[in-house]
Amino acid sequence: MDSQSNWNISNILSASRIILLVPILFFLFYGIEEWKIVLVILVSIATLTDFLDGYFARKFNQITELGKILDPIADKICVGALAFSLVLLGKIPLWFFLVVIVRDVLILFGGLYVKSKSNIVLQSNQLGKWTVGIVSLTIFLSLFENSFARIYLSTCVAISVAMLILSFVLYLSRFLKILKTT
Protein backbone atom coordinates (compact mmCIF):
# COMPACT_ATOMS: atom_id res chain seq x y z
CA MET A 1 0.00 0.00 0.00
CA ASP A 2 1.46 3.38 -0.94
CA SER A 3 2.01 6.06 1.67
CA GLN A 4 -0.60 8.37 0.15
CA SER A 5 -3.42 5.90 0.81
CA ASN A 6 -2.36 5.79 4.47
CA TRP A 7 -3.32 9.44 5.00
CA ASN A 8 -7.05 9.06 5.19
CA ILE A 9 -9.47 10.86 7.52
CA SER A 10 -8.98 8.29 10.29
CA ASN A 11 -5.20 8.57 10.37
CA ILE A 12 -5.35 12.37 10.11
CA LEU A 13 -7.64 12.39 13.16
CA SER A 14 -5.19 10.18 15.07
CA ALA A 15 -2.27 12.45 14.15
CA SER A 16 -4.29 15.56 15.08
CA ARG A 17 -4.68 14.17 18.60
CA ILE A 18 -0.91 14.36 19.06
CA ILE A 19 -0.78 17.86 17.56
CA LEU A 20 -3.58 19.05 19.88
CA LEU A 21 -1.41 18.05 22.82
CA VAL A 22 0.77 21.16 22.36
CA PRO A 23 -1.97 23.75 22.99
CA ILE A 24 -3.57 21.51 25.63
CA LEU A 25 -0.35 21.41 27.65
CA PHE A 26 0.17 25.14 27.15
CA PHE A 27 -3.27 25.98 28.54
CA LEU A 28 -2.89 23.40 31.31
CA PHE A 29 0.34 24.95 32.61
CA TYR A 30 0.09 28.59 31.53
CA GLY A 31 -3.58 29.29 31.00
CA ILE A 32 -5.31 31.67 33.30
CA GLU A 33 -8.58 30.61 34.95
CA GLU A 34 -10.65 32.57 32.42
CA TRP A 35 -9.13 30.44 29.62
CA LYS A 36 -9.94 27.13 31.30
CA ILE A 37 -12.88 26.69 28.93
CA VAL A 38 -10.41 26.62 26.02
CA LEU A 39 -8.52 23.82 27.76
CA VAL A 40 -11.73 21.87 28.34
CA ILE A 41 -12.76 22.32 24.68
CA LEU A 42 -9.35 21.20 23.40
CA VAL A 43 -9.34 18.11 25.63
CA SER A 44 -12.90 17.35 24.48
CA ILE A 45 -11.90 17.64 20.82
CA ALA A 46 -8.87 15.41 21.35
CA THR A 47 -11.05 12.81 23.07
CA LEU A 48 -13.62 13.01 20.27
CA THR A 49 -10.93 12.35 17.64
CA ASP A 50 -10.16 9.09 19.42
CA PHE A 51 -13.70 7.88 18.89
CA LEU A 52 -14.08 9.29 15.39
CA ASP A 53 -10.87 7.83 13.93
CA GLY A 54 -12.07 4.27 14.46
CA TYR A 55 -15.59 5.09 13.33
CA PHE A 56 -14.41 6.54 10.03
CA ALA A 57 -11.88 3.75 9.47
CA ARG A 58 -14.66 1.15 9.72
CA LYS A 59 -17.32 3.20 7.91
CA PHE A 60 -15.14 3.93 4.88
CA ASN A 61 -13.18 0.66 5.06
CA GLN A 62 -9.95 2.60 5.55
CA ILE A 63 -8.25 0.39 8.11
CA THR A 64 -4.52 0.62 7.42
CA GLU A 65 -1.38 -0.77 9.01
CA LEU A 66 -0.40 2.83 9.79
CA GLY A 67 -3.74 3.40 11.52
CA LYS A 68 -3.36 0.23 13.60
CA ILE A 69 -0.11 1.67 14.92
CA LEU A 70 -0.85 5.43 14.91
CA ASP A 71 -4.14 5.30 16.85
CA PRO A 72 -2.83 3.46 19.93
CA ILE A 73 0.46 5.41 19.84
CA ALA A 74 -1.50 8.70 19.77
CA ASP A 75 -3.58 7.43 22.71
CA LYS A 76 -0.50 6.49 24.69
CA ILE A 77 1.32 9.76 23.99
CA CYS A 78 -1.68 11.94 24.84
CA VAL A 79 -2.85 10.05 27.90
CA GLY A 80 0.72 9.68 29.20
CA ALA A 81 1.63 13.35 28.69
CA LEU A 82 -1.60 14.61 30.21
CA ALA A 83 -1.46 12.21 33.15
CA PHE A 84 2.16 13.15 33.88
CA SER A 85 1.30 16.84 33.66
CA LEU A 86 -1.61 16.36 36.04
CA VAL A 87 0.68 14.56 38.50
CA LEU A 88 3.05 17.53 38.37
CA LEU A 89 0.12 19.85 39.06
CA GLY A 90 -1.05 17.67 41.96
CA LYS A 91 -4.39 16.84 40.34
CA ILE A 92 -3.99 13.06 40.12
CA PRO A 93 -1.89 10.68 42.20
CA LEU A 94 1.49 9.46 40.97
CA TRP A 95 0.50 5.80 41.43
CA PHE A 96 -2.40 6.26 38.97
CA PHE A 97 -0.01 7.66 36.36
CA LEU A 98 2.35 4.73 36.94
CA VAL A 99 -0.44 2.17 36.44
CA VAL A 100 -1.41 3.85 33.16
CA ILE A 101 2.17 4.07 31.90
CA VAL A 102 3.30 0.59 32.93
CA ARG A 103 0.26 -0.98 31.22
CA ASP A 104 0.78 1.08 28.05
CA VAL A 105 4.52 0.38 27.86
CA LEU A 106 3.96 -3.36 28.37
CA ILE A 107 1.27 -3.42 25.66
CA LEU A 108 3.46 -1.40 23.29
CA PHE A 109 6.49 -3.64 23.69
CA GLY A 110 4.30 -6.74 23.62
CA GLY A 111 2.78 -5.57 20.36
CA LEU A 112 6.20 -4.87 18.87
CA TYR A 113 7.38 -8.32 19.92
CA VAL A 114 4.32 -10.01 18.39
CA LYS A 115 4.87 -8.01 15.18
CA SER A 116 8.51 -9.09 15.02
CA LYS A 117 7.65 -12.76 15.57
CA SER A 118 4.44 -13.09 13.54
CA ASN A 119 4.31 -9.99 11.32
CA ILE A 120 0.86 -9.28 12.74
CA VAL A 121 -0.13 -5.80 13.92
CA LEU A 122 -2.91 -6.14 16.45
CA GLN A 123 -5.62 -3.51 16.52
CA SER A 124 -6.88 -2.09 19.76
CA ASN A 125 -9.68 -4.18 21.15
CA GLN A 126 -13.04 -2.84 22.30
CA LEU A 127 -12.18 -3.05 26.00
CA GLY A 128 -8.92 -1.20 25.30
CA LYS A 129 -10.87 1.60 23.62
CA TRP A 130 -13.33 1.78 26.54
CA THR A 131 -10.41 1.83 28.95
CA VAL A 132 -8.83 4.79 27.16
CA GLY A 133 -12.24 6.48 27.29
CA ILE A 134 -12.59 6.00 31.05
CA VAL A 135 -8.99 7.11 31.65
CA SER A 136 -9.71 10.16 29.47
CA LEU A 137 -12.82 10.90 31.54
CA THR A 138 -10.69 10.63 34.67
CA ILE A 139 -8.20 13.10 33.21
CA PHE A 140 -11.03 15.38 32.10
CA LEU A 141 -12.60 15.42 35.57
CA SER A 142 -9.24 16.24 37.14
CA LEU A 143 -9.26 19.56 35.28
CA PHE A 144 -12.10 20.81 37.48
CA GLU A 145 -11.85 22.04 41.04
CA ASN A 146 -15.50 21.70 42.07
CA SER A 147 -16.83 19.10 44.51
CA PHE A 148 -19.03 17.45 41.86
CA ALA A 149 -16.00 16.58 39.72
CA ARG A 150 -13.95 15.49 42.76
CA ILE A 151 -16.63 13.00 43.87
CA TYR A 152 -16.73 11.39 40.44
CA LEU A 153 -12.96 11.60 40.02
CA SER A 154 -12.37 9.08 42.82
CA THR A 155 -14.89 6.69 41.26
CA CYS A 156 -13.34 7.12 37.80
CA VAL A 157 -9.85 6.46 39.17
CA ALA A 158 -11.05 3.17 40.69
CA ILE A 159 -12.92 2.11 37.53
CA SER A 160 -9.95 3.14 35.36
CA VAL A 161 -7.52 1.02 37.36
CA ALA A 162 -9.82 -2.01 37.18
CA MET A 163 -10.24 -1.56 33.42
CA LEU A 164 -6.51 -0.99 32.90
CA ILE A 165 -5.75 -4.28 34.63
CA LEU A 166 -8.50 -6.22 32.84
CA SER A 167 -7.61 -4.86 29.41
CA PHE A 168 -3.94 -5.67 30.01
CA VAL A 169 -4.86 -9.27 30.85
CA LEU A 170 -6.91 -9.51 27.63
CA TYR A 171 -4.08 -8.02 25.53
CA LEU A 172 -1.62 -10.44 27.12
CA SER A 173 -3.95 -13.33 26.32
CA ARG A 174 -4.16 -12.22 22.66
CA PHE A 175 -0.38 -11.85 22.44
CA LEU A 176 0.22 -15.32 23.87
CA LYS A 177 -2.40 -16.89 21.62
CA ILE A 178 -0.77 -15.44 18.50
CA LEU A 179 2.73 -16.41 19.64
CA LYS A 180 1.59 -20.00 20.24
CA THR A 181 0.36 -20.28 16.64
CA THR A 182 3.58 -18.96 15.09
Overview of this protein structure:
- It is a single chain.
- Helix content is about 80%, strand content about 0%.
- It has helices spanning about 5, 10-30, 35-60, 65-90, 95-120, 125-140, 145-180.
- It is globular and about 55 Å long.
- The mean pLDDT is about 90.
The total of beta strands comes to: 0
Helix content: over 70%
What sort of overall outline do the alpha carbons produce when their principal axes are compared? globular
- What is the overall number of helices? 7
The sequence of SSEs as H and E is: HHHHHHH
Which segments are poorly predicted (pLDDT under 50) over 5 or more consecutive residues? none
SSE blueprint and pairings:
Elements: H1 3-6, H2 9-30, H3 36-59, H4 65-88, H5 94-118, H6 126-141, H7 147-181
Helix pairs in contact: 2-3, 2-4, 3-6, 4-5, 4-6, 5-7, 6-7
Key traits:
182 residues, mainly alpha, single chain, 7 helices
Brief summary:
With 182 residues, the chain is an all-alpha fold. It is built from seven helices and no strands.
